[in-house]
Automatic annotation (TrEMBL):
Name this polypeptide is given: DNA-(apurinic or apyrimidinic site) endonuclease
Site (Important for catalytic activity): D337
Start and end residues of each Endonuclease/exonuclease/phosphatase domain: 108-364
Transmembrane segments: none
Pfam families documented for this protein: Exo_endo_phos (PF03372)
Sample GO molecular function, one term: metal ion binding
Keyword Metal-binding attributed: yes
Location of region: Disordered: 1-86
GO biological process: base-excision repair
Organism: Wolfiporia cocos (strain MD-104)
Record's keyword terms, sorted: DNA damage, DNA repair, Hydrolase, Lyase, Magnesium, Manganese, Metal-binding
Protein backbone atom coordinates (compact mmCIF):
# COMPACT_ATOMS: atom_id res chain seq x y z
CA UNK A 1 0.00 0.00 0.00
CA UNK A 2 1.31 3.43 -0.90
CA UNK A 3 2.12 5.66 2.07
CA UNK A 4 -0.54 8.15 3.03
CA UNK A 5 0.15 11.55 1.48
CA UNK A 6 0.62 14.52 3.77
CA UNK A 7 -0.91 17.84 2.78
CA UNK A 8 1.45 20.66 1.89
CA UNK A 9 -0.12 22.75 4.67
CA UNK A 10 0.67 20.11 7.28
CA UNK A 11 4.26 19.71 6.06
CA UNK A 12 4.67 23.48 6.25
CA UNK A 13 3.20 23.64 9.76
CA UNK A 14 5.52 20.87 10.96
CA UNK A 15 8.53 22.72 9.58
CA UNK A 16 7.45 26.17 10.76
CA UNK A 17 6.86 24.93 14.29
CA UNK A 18 10.02 22.84 14.46
CA UNK A 19 11.10 23.17 18.05
CA UNK A 20 14.56 23.37 19.61
CA UNK A 21 16.21 20.03 20.27
CA UNK A 22 15.21 18.41 23.52
CA UNK A 23 17.68 17.28 26.13
CA UNK A 24 19.51 14.25 24.80
CA UNK A 25 17.46 11.76 26.82
CA UNK A 26 14.08 13.44 26.39
CA UNK A 27 11.57 11.25 24.61
CA UNK A 28 7.97 11.98 23.62
CA UNK A 29 5.47 9.34 22.61
CA UNK A 30 4.32 9.15 19.00
CA UNK A 31 0.85 10.03 20.20
CA UNK A 32 2.09 13.14 22.01
CA UNK A 33 4.06 14.31 18.98
CA UNK A 34 1.11 13.69 16.67
CA UNK A 35 -1.20 15.58 19.02
CA UNK A 36 1.20 18.52 19.16
CA UNK A 37 1.51 18.66 15.38
CA UNK A 38 -2.27 18.50 14.99
CA UNK A 39 -2.70 21.44 17.36
CA UNK A 40 -0.07 23.44 15.51
CA UNK A 41 -1.73 22.60 12.20
CA UNK A 42 -5.01 23.89 13.60
CA UNK A 43 -3.34 27.11 14.73
CA UNK A 44 -2.14 27.63 11.17
CA UNK A 45 -5.66 27.26 9.82
CA UNK A 46 -5.31 23.77 8.31
CA UNK A 47 -6.29 22.94 4.78
CA UNK A 48 -4.15 22.92 1.67
CA UNK A 49 -1.72 25.76 1.26
CA UNK A 50 -2.12 27.90 -1.83
CA UNK A 51 0.80 27.81 -4.22
CA UNK A 52 1.96 31.20 -5.48
CA UNK A 53 2.25 31.77 -9.18
CA UNK A 54 5.60 30.55 -10.49
CA UNK A 55 6.74 34.00 -11.54
CA UNK A 56 5.91 35.54 -8.17
CA UNK A 57 7.52 32.67 -6.27
CA UNK A 58 10.73 33.00 -8.26
CA UNK A 59 10.86 36.76 -7.78
CA UNK A 60 10.28 36.40 -4.04
CA UNK A 61 12.98 33.73 -3.75
CA UNK A 62 15.57 35.82 -5.56
CA UNK A 63 14.73 38.90 -3.49
CA UNK A 64 15.19 36.97 -0.25
CA UNK A 65 18.41 35.32 -1.34
CA UNK A 66 16.95 31.83 -0.97
CA UNK A 67 17.70 30.74 -4.52
CA UNK A 68 20.64 30.84 -6.90
CA UNK A 69 21.33 34.43 -7.87
CA UNK A 70 20.22 35.85 -4.50
CA UNK A 71 22.25 37.42 -1.73
CA UNK A 72 25.42 35.61 -0.68
CA UNK A 73 27.64 35.47 2.37
CA UNK A 74 31.36 36.27 2.57
CA UNK A 75 32.29 32.86 1.14
CA UNK A 76 29.88 33.12 -1.79
CA UNK A 77 27.27 30.86 -0.23
CA UNK A 78 23.58 31.67 -0.44
CA UNK A 79 21.81 33.42 2.41
CA UNK A 80 18.53 32.30 3.95
CA UNK A 81 15.52 34.64 3.85
CA UNK A 82 16.47 35.95 7.32
CA UNK A 83 19.95 36.91 6.08
CA UNK A 84 21.98 34.13 7.70
CA UNK A 85 24.26 31.67 5.89
CA UNK A 86 22.84 28.35 4.69
CA UNK A 87 26.00 26.20 4.72
CA UNK A 88 25.60 22.84 6.43
CA UNK A 89 29.26 22.20 7.23
CA UNK A 90 31.94 24.41 8.75
CA UNK A 91 33.74 26.11 5.84
CA UNK A 92 37.40 25.44 5.14
CA UNK A 93 39.79 28.23 6.04
CA UNK A 94 37.49 29.61 8.73
CA UNK A 95 38.68 33.01 9.97
CA UNK A 96 37.31 35.98 11.91
CA UNK A 97 38.33 39.66 12.08
CA UNK A 98 41.18 40.26 14.53
CA UNK A 99 40.30 41.71 17.90
CA UNK A 100 41.73 44.76 19.59
CA UNK A 101 44.51 44.29 22.12
CA UNK A 102 42.52 45.74 25.03
CA UNK A 103 39.51 43.39 24.95
CA UNK A 104 38.65 39.99 26.39
CA UNK A 105 36.81 37.53 24.15
CA UNK A 106 34.29 35.02 25.51
CA UNK A 107 32.63 32.43 23.26
CA UNK A 108 29.84 29.94 23.94
CA UNK A 109 28.69 26.96 21.91
CA UNK A 110 26.24 24.10 22.34
CA UNK A 111 28.30 21.39 20.65
CA UNK A 112 25.70 18.61 20.91
CA UNK A 113 28.36 16.10 21.96
CA UNK A 114 32.10 16.79 22.08
CA UNK A 115 33.10 13.50 20.46
CA UNK A 116 30.84 14.08 17.46
CA UNK A 117 31.73 17.78 17.12
CA UNK A 118 35.46 17.02 17.05
CA UNK A 119 34.92 15.04 13.85
CA UNK A 120 33.11 17.94 12.16
CA UNK A 121 35.29 21.00 12.67
CA UNK A 122 35.16 21.78 16.40
CA UNK A 123 38.90 22.43 16.65
CA UNK A 124 38.92 24.54 13.48
CA UNK A 125 36.40 26.86 15.10
CA UNK A 126 38.29 27.05 18.41
CA UNK A 127 41.50 27.90 16.57
CA UNK A 128 39.83 30.58 14.45
CA UNK A 129 37.96 32.17 17.35
CA UNK A 130 40.78 31.85 19.89
CA UNK A 131 38.67 33.05 22.84
CA UNK A 132 40.04 33.83 26.27
CA UNK A 133 37.12 31.90 27.75
CA UNK A 134 35.15 29.17 25.98
CA UNK A 135 31.84 27.93 27.39
CA UNK A 136 30.67 24.57 26.04
CA UNK A 137 27.21 23.12 26.62
CA UNK A 138 25.70 19.70 25.94
CA UNK A 139 29.17 18.19 25.94
CA UNK A 140 27.80 14.68 26.70
CA UNK A 141 31.14 13.63 28.17
CA UNK A 142 31.29 10.93 30.84
CA UNK A 143 34.79 11.76 32.08
CA UNK A 144 37.07 14.79 31.98
CA UNK A 145 38.52 14.78 28.44
CA UNK A 146 42.27 14.39 28.05
CA UNK A 147 42.88 16.57 25.01
CA UNK A 148 46.42 17.99 24.68
CA UNK A 149 45.38 20.70 22.20
CA UNK A 150 42.67 22.05 24.51
CA UNK A 151 45.02 21.83 27.48
CA UNK A 152 47.68 23.81 25.63
CA UNK A 153 45.22 26.54 24.63
CA UNK A 154 43.26 26.67 27.90
CA UNK A 155 45.35 25.90 31.00
CA UNK A 156 42.28 26.13 33.25
CA UNK A 157 39.44 23.73 32.39
CA UNK A 158 36.35 22.94 34.44
CA UNK A 159 33.89 20.22 33.42
CA UNK A 160 30.46 19.70 34.98
CA UNK A 161 29.44 16.14 34.13
CA UNK A 162 25.92 14.75 34.45
CA UNK A 163 25.20 11.62 36.47
CA UNK A 164 23.55 10.02 33.45
CA UNK A 165 26.03 8.88 30.81
CA UNK A 166 26.05 10.72 27.50
CA UNK A 167 23.74 13.43 28.78
CA UNK A 168 23.89 17.22 29.22
CA UNK A 169 27.31 18.48 30.35
CA UNK A 170 28.73 22.00 30.68
CA UNK A 171 32.34 23.19 30.65
CA UNK A 172 34.28 26.43 30.89
CA UNK A 173 37.79 26.50 29.43
CA UNK A 174 39.87 29.55 30.30
CA UNK A 175 43.24 31.11 29.61
CA UNK A 176 42.86 33.07 32.86
CA UNK A 177 42.93 31.34 36.22
CA UNK A 178 39.72 32.00 38.20
CA UNK A 179 39.60 32.85 41.88
CA UNK A 180 36.94 30.21 42.57
CA UNK A 181 34.90 27.51 40.81
CA UNK A 182 31.44 26.07 41.44
CA UNK A 183 29.32 23.49 39.61
CA UNK A 184 26.23 23.62 41.84
CA UNK A 185 23.04 25.70 41.95
CA UNK A 186 22.53 26.82 45.57
CA UNK A 187 19.19 25.88 47.09
CA UNK A 188 18.02 23.68 44.23
CA UNK A 189 16.20 20.63 45.66
CA UNK A 190 17.53 18.20 43.03
CA UNK A 191 21.32 18.36 43.27
CA UNK A 192 21.68 15.35 40.98
CA UNK A 193 19.52 16.99 38.30
CA UNK A 194 21.71 20.09 38.38
CA UNK A 195 24.89 18.11 37.63
CA UNK A 196 26.23 18.89 34.18
CA UNK A 197 24.18 22.06 33.79
CA UNK A 198 26.13 24.91 35.39
CA UNK A 199 29.68 26.13 35.94
CA UNK A 200 30.36 29.40 37.77
CA UNK A 201 33.84 30.95 37.70
CA UNK A 202 34.80 33.96 39.77
CA UNK A 203 37.43 36.30 38.33
CA UNK A 204 38.91 39.50 39.70
CA UNK A 205 36.33 41.85 38.18
CA UNK A 206 33.36 39.60 37.37
CA UNK A 207 31.73 36.18 37.43
CA UNK A 208 31.31 34.03 34.32
CA UNK A 209 28.36 31.62 34.51
CA UNK A 210 27.89 28.95 31.86
CA UNK A 211 24.60 27.06 31.78
CA UNK A 212 22.84 24.36 29.82
CA UNK A 213 19.36 25.24 31.05
CA UNK A 214 16.83 22.37 31.27
CA UNK A 215 14.36 21.97 28.42
CA UNK A 216 10.62 22.06 29.18
CA UNK A 217 10.18 18.87 27.16
CA UNK A 218 7.82 17.44 24.58
CA UNK A 219 4.31 18.60 25.36
CA UNK A 220 5.82 20.79 28.12
CA UNK A 221 5.91 17.72 30.36
CA UNK A 222 8.98 18.97 32.25
CA UNK A 223 7.95 22.62 32.49
CA UNK A 224 7.74 22.25 36.28
CA UNK A 225 11.40 21.16 36.30
CA UNK A 226 12.27 24.22 34.22
CA UNK A 227 10.29 26.51 36.53
CA UNK A 228 12.14 25.16 39.57
CA UNK A 229 15.47 25.75 37.83
CA UNK A 230 14.46 29.30 36.88
CA UNK A 231 13.44 30.12 40.45
CA UNK A 232 16.74 29.03 41.96
CA UNK A 233 18.91 30.30 39.13
CA UNK A 234 17.36 33.76 39.39
CA UNK A 235 18.26 33.85 43.08
CA UNK A 236 21.78 32.62 42.26
CA UNK A 237 22.55 35.20 39.58
CA UNK A 238 21.15 38.03 41.72
CA UNK A 239 23.32 36.96 44.64
CA UNK A 240 26.38 36.95 42.39
CA UNK A 241 25.50 40.34 40.91
CA UNK A 242 25.28 41.81 44.41
CA UNK A 243 28.99 40.94 44.81
CA UNK A 244 30.37 41.82 41.37
CA UNK A 245 29.13 41.98 37.74
CA UNK A 246 28.10 38.77 35.95
CA UNK A 247 28.51 37.40 32.42
CA UNK A 248 25.91 34.66 31.90
CA UNK A 249 26.09 32.60 28.73
CA UNK A 250 25.43 29.19 27.19
CA UNK A 251 22.32 27.46 25.87
CA UNK A 252 19.62 29.26 27.85
CA UNK A 253 16.82 27.25 26.19
CA UNK A 254 14.44 30.20 25.87
CA UNK A 255 13.45 32.46 22.99
CA UNK A 256 12.91 35.70 24.92
CA UNK A 257 10.66 37.51 22.42
CA UNK A 258 8.73 36.91 19.21
CA UNK A 259 11.79 38.16 17.30
CA UNK A 260 13.84 35.24 18.62
CA UNK A 261 12.18 32.45 16.66
CA UNK A 262 11.05 32.24 13.06
CA UNK A 263 7.45 31.25 13.76
CA UNK A 264 6.28 32.56 17.11
CA UNK A 265 2.50 32.27 16.69
CA UNK A 266 2.12 28.48 16.36
CA UNK A 267 4.69 27.85 19.12
CA UNK A 268 3.43 30.21 21.84
CA UNK A 269 2.60 28.27 25.02
CA UNK A 270 2.82 25.01 23.05
CA UNK A 271 6.53 24.46 22.54
CA UNK A 272 9.41 24.23 25.01
CA UNK A 273 11.40 27.45 25.10
CA UNK A 274 8.57 29.77 24.15
CA UNK A 275 5.97 29.77 26.90
CA UNK A 276 4.73 32.56 29.11
CA UNK A 277 6.36 30.95 32.15
CA UNK A 278 9.78 30.73 30.48
CA UNK A 279 9.83 34.11 28.78
CA UNK A 280 8.54 35.84 31.90
CA UNK A 281 11.23 34.20 34.05
CA UNK A 282 13.89 35.48 31.64
CA UNK A 283 12.36 38.97 31.62
CA UNK A 284 12.39 39.06 35.43
CA UNK A 285 16.15 38.48 35.41
CA UNK A 286 16.65 41.38 33.01
CA UNK A 287 14.39 43.68 35.01
CA UNK A 288 16.03 43.03 38.38
CA UNK A 289 14.37 43.70 41.71
CA UNK A 290 15.02 47.42 41.94
CA UNK A 291 17.90 48.83 43.95
CA UNK A 292 18.09 51.82 46.24
CA UNK A 293 21.04 54.17 46.03
CA UNK A 294 22.39 57.14 44.20
CA UNK A 295 23.84 57.39 40.73
CA UNK A 296 23.63 55.35 37.54
CA UNK A 297 25.63 52.40 38.87
CA UNK A 298 23.23 51.93 41.78
CA UNK A 299 20.24 52.10 39.44
CA UNK A 300 21.79 49.45 37.17
CA UNK A 301 22.67 47.07 39.98
CA UNK A 302 20.46 44.01 39.86
CA UNK A 303 19.50 44.52 36.21
CA UNK A 304 20.80 42.53 33.24
CA UNK A 305 21.08 43.07 29.49
CA UNK A 306 20.70 40.63 26.59
CA UNK A 307 23.75 42.01 24.79
CA UNK A 308 23.15 40.70 21.25
CA UNK A 309 19.54 41.90 21.25
CA UNK A 310 20.59 45.31 22.60
CA UNK A 311 23.09 45.65 19.74
CA UNK A 312 20.75 44.20 17.09
CA UNK A 313 17.27 45.36 18.15
CA UNK A 314 15.43 44.37 14.97
CA UNK A 315 17.46 41.45 13.61
CA UNK A 316 15.92 37.99 13.30
CA UNK A 317 19.03 35.84 13.44
CA UNK A 318 19.08 32.51 15.23
CA UNK A 319 21.54 30.17 16.94
CA UNK A 320 19.66 26.87 16.57
CA UNK A 321 18.45 25.26 13.34
CA UNK A 322 16.92 21.80 13.34
CA UNK A 323 18.45 19.32 10.91
CA UNK A 324 14.89 18.50 9.79
CA UNK A 325 12.79 20.11 7.06
CA UNK A 326 15.76 22.07 5.63
CA UNK A 327 15.27 24.60 8.42
CA UNK A 328 18.80 25.89 7.92
CA UNK A 329 18.20 26.71 4.26
CA UNK A 330 14.85 28.33 5.01
CA UNK A 331 16.13 30.40 7.93
CA UNK A 332 13.72 28.71 10.35
CA UNK A 333 15.45 28.79 13.71
CA UNK A 334 15.48 29.87 17.34
CA UNK A 335 17.85 32.19 19.23
CA UNK A 336 18.59 30.13 22.35
CA UNK A 337 22.29 30.81 22.93
CA UNK A 338 23.17 34.28 24.18
CA UNK A 339 25.13 36.56 26.46
CA UNK A 340 23.31 38.20 29.35
CA UNK A 341 25.44 40.59 31.41
CA UNK A 342 24.98 42.82 34.43
CA UNK A 343 23.72 46.18 33.18
CA UNK A 344 26.80 47.93 34.53
CA UNK A 345 28.96 45.82 32.19
CA UNK A 346 27.07 46.86 29.07
CA UNK A 347 29.22 49.92 28.42
CA UNK A 348 32.26 47.62 28.16
CA UNK A 349 30.70 45.50 25.39
CA UNK A 350 32.51 46.11 22.09
CA UNK A 351 31.06 43.30 20.00
CA UNK A 352 28.50 40.50 20.33
CA UNK A 353 27.81 38.25 17.35
CA UNK A 354 26.27 34.97 16.30
CA UNK A 355 28.82 32.99 14.28
CA UNK A 356 26.19 32.00 11.75
CA UNK A 357 28.65 30.37 9.35
CA UNK A 358 29.78 27.88 12.03
CA UNK A 359 27.19 25.16 11.55
CA UNK A 360 27.32 21.43 10.96
CA UNK A 361 29.47 20.29 13.86
CA UNK A 362 26.32 20.92 15.89
CA UNK A 363 22.79 22.11 15.19
CA UNK A 364 23.69 25.26 17.15
CA UNK A 365 25.93 28.16 16.10
CA UNK A 366 28.43 29.70 18.54
CA UNK A 367 28.00 33.16 20.02
CA UNK A 368 30.84 35.50 20.96
CA UNK A 369 31.24 38.59 23.14
CA UNK A 370 34.10 41.06 23.42
CA UNK A 371 34.45 43.29 26.47
CA UNK A 372 36.90 46.13 26.97
CA UNK A 373 39.34 45.52 29.79
CA UNK A 374 40.07 42.24 31.54
CA UNK A 375 38.30 39.61 33.58
Amino acid sequence: MAPKRTSSAKRKADADSDSPGLDSDAEGSTKARASKKAKLDASEGGGAAKKPAKGKAKAKAVASGSRSGGATDATGGELAPNGQPTNKAIPAGLAFPPRAADVVRVAAWNICGLAAAEKKGFKAYVQAEDPDVLVLTETKVNDVPADPSLAARFPHRYWAIASKKGYAGTAILSKVKPLSVSTTLPGHPDADGVKGRIVTLEFESCFVVGTYVPNAGTGLKTLDVKNTWNEHFTAHIRALDARKPVIWTGDLNVAPTDKDLANPRPNWNKTAGYTEAETRAFARILEGEGQSGEGKKDEEKGKFVDVWRAMHPDARHYTYFSYRFNCRGKGIGWRLDMFVVSARLQERARMCEIRGEVYGASDHCPVVLELAGSL
